[in-house]
C-alpha cells in the first residue's frame, strides 16, 4: 500500500544521510523542503523531494497537503504513562500551599501512586494506560519511552513492565521500556534503603533482564531519594545484564548524578533543572543526551532546564513530556515544544530538533525515527493550514494537527 502526499507547503526535518543527533549551533538548523512531496510504502518512507521533481502521481492513496506542513512525529523519550488513577487532590493541596516535598513526606507522591497501582489489576492498569497511549498518538507522538517505578514491589513492578510490553505489541507506536524500581523507598523499607536496593538489584532486576522486560535502567538520583553511591551500585548491576542507563538527575538538587550517568555511559540524563558548570562540562565529549522536561517545570513551578547555557556550550538537548500523575499529568509534546520556546528561549528549530532527532537518539531509535529520511518509519504529522512552522510553538495550546501517521497507519 503506497500513500503519496503532494503540494506540501513545507516538509520539515528532511535527511539524506541519517544523523545520530544534532548539538550546539547545529541545533538552529532545521533542514526543510518547500513545495514538497512525500511517498510512503507500508510502514516506510520511500521517497521525498520537491514537487517539480515528482515524476508520476500514482499511488494507492493520494493526499493533497496544500497549505499544510508535514513533519516527523514527536519522539517522547521520558514518560511514566503506565499508572493507576490520578493525584488531582495533591494538585489542589499544592495550590493551597503544600510543597511537592511536603506531600511526598506525608505519604503522598510516588508512594500514593504505588499504593493505587498495587491495588489495581493488570487488566485495569492496561486499560487506563492504553487510553493515554491512544491520546498521545493523536497528539502526534510516534515513539515513546515508558518507565516502571510505581510498583515498588517485585509483583507490581513486573505487572507494570508486562503492561508496557503488551502496549507495544498492540499499538503501532514504538515503545521502549525502562526499569525504574529505584524510584522511591516503599514504606516497609523506610529505614532500610540498603535492603530495598538489594531487593531491586538481586530480586527484581534478574527477572526483568531474563524476561527482556526492559532495555533501560533508571533511578531517582536525588536528595532524600537515592544517592550517587546508590546510583552507581545499581548502574553497575544493570550493566552486567546489558541494561543502559537513562536516569533522573538534578531535578531539585545537583549532587553528581550527571557524572554518575556519564561514567556508566548513560543514553540520557533527564530533568536537569539544577545545572552546575561542572555538570555542563561533564556532558561535553560524552555520548549522553541531556533531556529537559519543561512541562514538569511548568506544573511544579520549579526552574526550567537552562537550555540556552547548555546549547550555547555546544551540547545537544532533547525534550520530553515526563507524563506522570504527580509532576506532569500531560503527554502533549506540542505543549512541550511551545514551552521550550517560550520559557527556555529555544528557537523553533532547536525545539523541533530536540523533540524529533535528538529525542529519537535518547531512546536508541535514531536509525528508524526522528526525521523524514528514506528507509525510516513512515511516522509523520500533517498539520492544518498554518502560515509557517513558527506557528506551531507560537500559537501555543491550540491543536494544529490534522492527521497523524504512525508506521504508515493513519491514527
Ligand atoms: O520524573 N522525579 C521523579 N519522578 C517523577 C514524578 C514522580 C511523581 O510525583 O509521581 C518525575 O517527575
Ligand atoms: Fe520522570
UniProtKB/TrEMBL annotation:
Zn(2+) binds at residues 78, 80, 248, 322. Binds 1 zinc or iron ion per subunit. Keywords: Cytoplasm, Histidine metabolism, Hydrolase, Iron, Metal-binding, Zinc. Its EC number is 3.5.2.7. Gene3D superfamilies: Metal-dependent hydrolases, Urease, subunit C, domain 1. It catalyses: 4-imidazolone-5-propanoate + H2O = N-formimidoyl-L-glutamate. 4-imidazolone-5-propanoate binds at residues 87, 150, 183, 251, 327. Pfam families: Amidohydro_1 (PF01979). Fe(3+) binds at residues 78, 80, 248, 322. Residues 69-410 form the Amidohydrolase-related domain. Its main location: cytoplasm. InterPro entries: Amidohydro-rel, HutI, Metal-dep_hydrolase_composite, Metal_Hydrolase. The keyword Acyltransferase does not apply. GO terms for molecular function: imidazolonepropionase activity. N-formimidoyl-L-glutamate binds at residues 150, 324, 326. The keyword Cytoplasm applies. Its cofactor is Zn(2+); Fe(3+). It is an enzyme of class 3 (hydrolase). It is found in: Cytoplasm. Pathway: Amino-acid degradation; L-histidine degradation into L-glutamate; N-formimidoyl-L-glutamate from L-histidine: step 3/3. Catalyzes the hydrolytic cleavage of the carbon-nitrogen bond in imidazolone-5-propanoate to yield N-formimidoyl-L-glutamate. It is the third step in the universal histidine degradation pathway. Belongs to the metallo-dependent hydrolases superfamily. HutI family. This is Imidazolonepropionase. The lineage of its organism: Bacteria, Pseudomonadati, Bacteroidota, Flavobacteriia, Flavobacteriales.
